Amino acid sequence: MYDTTYHILSHLWEALTAPLHPDADLYWGFLVCALVIAWFAWHLHLNPTPQPVGQSLRSFARRYFSKNLWWHRSAKVDYLLYFSNILLMPIVFTYVGFSQGHVESLFKHFITPSPLLPSPLPPIWLLLLFTIVFFVVYDLGRFIAHSLQHDIPFFWEFHKVHHSAEVLTPMTAFRVHPLDILIMNWVPTLLTGLTTAVFHHYIDPRIGFFTFFGLHVFVFLFNWIDHLRHWSVWVTYPHPLSNWLISPAHHQLHHSAEPEHWGCNRGYELALWDRLYGTLIVPPSLPPAFRLGLGDGSDGQWHCLSKIYFWPLTQSFKLLKNRARPNQNPSQKSALSTVNPPVSPPKP
Ligand SMILES: [Zn+2]
Ligand SMILES: [Zn+2]
Is 245 helix (H, G, I), strand (E, B) or coil? Predict the structure, then answer.
């Protein structure tokens, strides 16, 4: 009993004090930086009527801090999920999570020790190389995981929770089913763990990457702008950068319920993976009109925490059960479809 209470209180405390920790997503420095970028984008580019600074600040606040947005029922669920997932995730990870350390130990278990290769680069260049390679592999891992979430119907049932958001605020980043978080962690952890193991095994057993406030330096830099991925301020990168990097507007299009946008822009920072996979849609410099949500008529049905946690579980296991029946009677299938109309996963 004491342990459970301690667990709950310490994790709630962690969630509440996140803005004070530079290695937390909600660190106040990242939030302020995102806010400044958002306002500049509004003032210089988006505001239809150029205004003096004070007036522009007021219209920005009216538009992007409105009660309709931040107190929308969909946004309230995002806040609840932030706290409830913080309590649940340590438990889930204990049973089905793994770390880079685990991957590295497994690698060592199967690969016989060998002498280190002579490094062709001075230590500082080697450090820079590892920093870049680690980040690219991490970003690729996140893209693969996100593509699995969209392309595999079983995983899509869990990822729907994130896409069911009817409004976007920076807290929508936390609107995720715990099993969706796991998928999102497994692939990058596996790839970065293998990459680290190869570097440690063959080149330098002590090599690390450049960090800033405990975060990978590139992750730290992208955190300055990444909160705008989930907010209605339309921030794009200038051409041709927008062909190569995923801007906040790229991700907002990813949340579009319009069929022509389904499954686009799955990347996090590098647009390369979407280019190769054929899912890149470069956003225009001004926001086009599009609806948010799943686009399947289920808006308004994702405002309850119990539905968010349990509905994906029942739907995904129904999918598994159907697959396990090889000679399924087609009439049975259509009956099931009528009870729970399936939502086709977004197409690549
Ligand atoms: Zn997605
Ligand atoms: Zn999102």
Answer: strand
